[in-house]
Design a protein that fits this description.
The protein is of the alpha/beta class. Strands 1, 2, 3, 4, 5, 15, 16 and 17 form an 8-stranded mixed beta sheet that branches. Strands 6-14-7-8 form a 4-stranded parallel beta sheet, covered by helices on one side. A 3-stranded antiparallel beta sheet has the order 11-12-13, with no helix packed on it.
Length: 358
């Protein structure tokens, strides 16, 4: 690592984020000859390992998630499916950082990335400043929960929360809960809330799109292709459910049969004590749970002016077309756990080629 200077510590590559994609990138940088802490640095805003997974609610068990894919050269194995996914992944990622000596620096939040001259980028952070020849951004989406705008939302007299802030379904026993959103998380929350004794109402913008297509490698590649077509054109990535649909599991089918997983349709507006739907019907609610997803956490890249007129960032694989020394993993086609490890490798390989050491 270069000497601490007024304009920042010098490194070859800076990796922002230590989730699945960031750890994968770090592993391949090290494997190809860069030393952790001197050739490259990994900066993570969390207090400990686990990435976004460390923040997930305890009721999200390993057996209820679509899958947690292996990090390079370190298979996850077969943990107890009833264990909270947050615990499993935090332990797995922490052991991985130690095993491969990745020396993740945390908690370090990157506030701003900007040009630094001579082909470098400057990272201004809560822990000082770095200058890097290449930056691999792996910040994911957890820090950017999406709150949609609806007329009257500010007048609702009950409780509003986003899935980002959910802790336990038991907190809502006996209460009327309006769940807004058409993704897997909305479906899982509806079932949990119903089982915990809440009275649930479901609102989706479109009819729920269930599929019997197996969520295997072929499915994953097709999803990545759909998303990649948009990011190559400079358009914002699709929402997860728009690309994947909802798997029609036995539990979900039972929820449909029981009337729990039946949408009332899109919202028209929020009232002081509930909501009005597009068909003119109404429902009273004590709680609105916004299961409306997340957006890419990229505010720190704003000084680089990456956005295209279509609202997205034009990508070529993990590389940003406007700025060849910047790579985004966990964005677009690599935002799923299926693609993140592979994207980390691709970004590390491309960064090393840029440096002339690939």
């Amino acid at each position: 690592m270069g000497q601490d200077q007024a304009d920042g510590v010098e490194v070859e590559v800076a990796v922002i984020g230590a989730g699945q994609a960031g750890l994968s990138a770090a592993y391949y940088l090290q494997r190809r000859g860069l030393a952790a802490g001197s050739g490259f640095v990994v900066l993570d805003a969390n207090e400990g390992p686990g990435g976004a997974w460390r923040h997930r609610w305890d009721s999200l068990t390993l057996g209820s998630v679509h899958g947690i894919h292996d990090l390079p050269r370190s298979p996850l194995g077969t943990p107890n499916p009833r264990e909270p996914a947050s615990s499993v992944v935090t332990r797995y990622y922490g052991d991985y950082e130690t095993e491969f000596g990745l020396h993740v620096q945390r908690p370090v939040r990157v506030h701003r990335v900007s040009p630094a001259g001579k082909g470098r980028l400057r990272l201004e952070t809560s822990g000082g400043s770095w200058r890097a020849r290449a930056v691999i951004n792996a910040t994911g989406t957890w820090d950017k929960p999406h709150w949609p705008s609806y007329p009257g939302r500010e007048n609702f007299g009950g409780t509003q929360l986003h899935t980002h802030d959910f802790s336990s379904a038991a907190d809502f026993a006996g209460r009327r809960v309006l769940v807004v959103g058409g993704g897997t998380s909305a479906v899982q929350f509806l079932l949990q809330l119903h089982d915990a004794g809440a009275r649930t109402i479901w609102s989706t913008r479109r009819p729920p799109d269930f599929t019997r297509t197996p969520f295997d490698a072929d499915w994953g590649r097709d999803v990545e292709r759909q998303v990649s077509e948009r990011t190559r054109a400079g358009l914002p990535p699709l929402s997860v459910v728009a690309a994947t649909k909802l798997p029609l599991t036995a539990a979900y089918q039972q929820g449909i049969d029981d009337g729990v997983l039946v949408s009332r349709g899109p919202l028209s507006r929020i009232t002081a004590d509930g909501a009005v739907f597009a068909d003119g019907s109404t429902a009273e609610a004590d709680v609105i749970l916004w299961a409306t997803g997340f957006r890419a956490s990229l505010d720190h890249l704003a000084p680089l002016h990456l956005r295209e007129p279509g609202g997205g960032i034009r990508m070529d694989g993990p590389r940003v077309q406007k700025l060849p020394q910047l790579f985004l993993v966990g964005y677009g086609e690599s935002s799923s756990t299926l693609g993140a490890t592979r994207a980390g490798r691709a970004a590390a390989t491309a960064a090393l080629e840029l440096l002339g050491t690939g």
